[in-house]
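I have been asked to look over a protein record a colleague put together. What it holds is a sequence and that sequence's fold in token form. Please read both lines and tell me whether the tokens look consistent with the sequence. I do not need a full report, just your reasoning and any doubts. This is what I was given:
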Amino acid sequence: MTHKAAPKVILLEVTNSKGLPDHFQDHYHTHLVCHRGSIRFVFNDQEMACKRDEFLFWFAESRLSGLQLSKDFKATVLLVEKDFLNNNLPDQGWSINALLHSRVYPVKTIHGENGRQKILLNFKWLHDRFLETEHRFYTEALSLQMQLFILEMWHIFANEYERRKHSLQTGTLYERFMQLAGEHCMTEREVQFYSNQLNITPKYLNQICKHSSGITASQWIQRFARERIIILLENKKLNISEIADKMEFGSRSFFTRYVKKLLGATPSEYRSRMG
């Protein structure tokens, strides 16, 4: 018996009475424009909400639970199959920071009707290209449209990313630590580095993080590093030695042990599970 392959791209209008597909987050990256009402959820153990004139992005397999849609909720939702998106990420140095930012801050503000229309048009262009199966160069054209989609979304929210980065530089110690961890976790995995940057002791930094978020600074560093490793492993253009070099590990074997500690699998095992 053969099974029909799941579509790479799905475009939906979602309301309270017509919700998201079952188990959508297992296989799809989710892009959502909220038109009215709100959607509430728990993301990485934090309660969050997306309201009117806000954009929401969830990675496939995110730590997501407790979805609640308000009675008047309405949204346009684009679901993109995880491997299709991951395999078509533009080769940009900026991409890892942009992706990591979305893993920490999934809700973003849409600025005006013009911003909303740009996002919705970007949704439509990708979905229309997906449906155009008679195109002589369908596979190549769809891959290019996926890359263009990603670049357009990065462009739309680049200013917000830069504003948040700038504001956190003058924020609380906890906020400044989170910004530093996002920037440096690729190569700095010890609490001492961050406490030195903030002119406090490692013990005090752990206490601040524990009080603010319920987990320690070292746990946050591991969480950030884990997210980056996943992003890098999902980019099949990079081999494992190249990833180890990017993260400045002294040897591939040391990198392999570190990944197994964070992911419960070696880099090769993790990639084989991805298929």
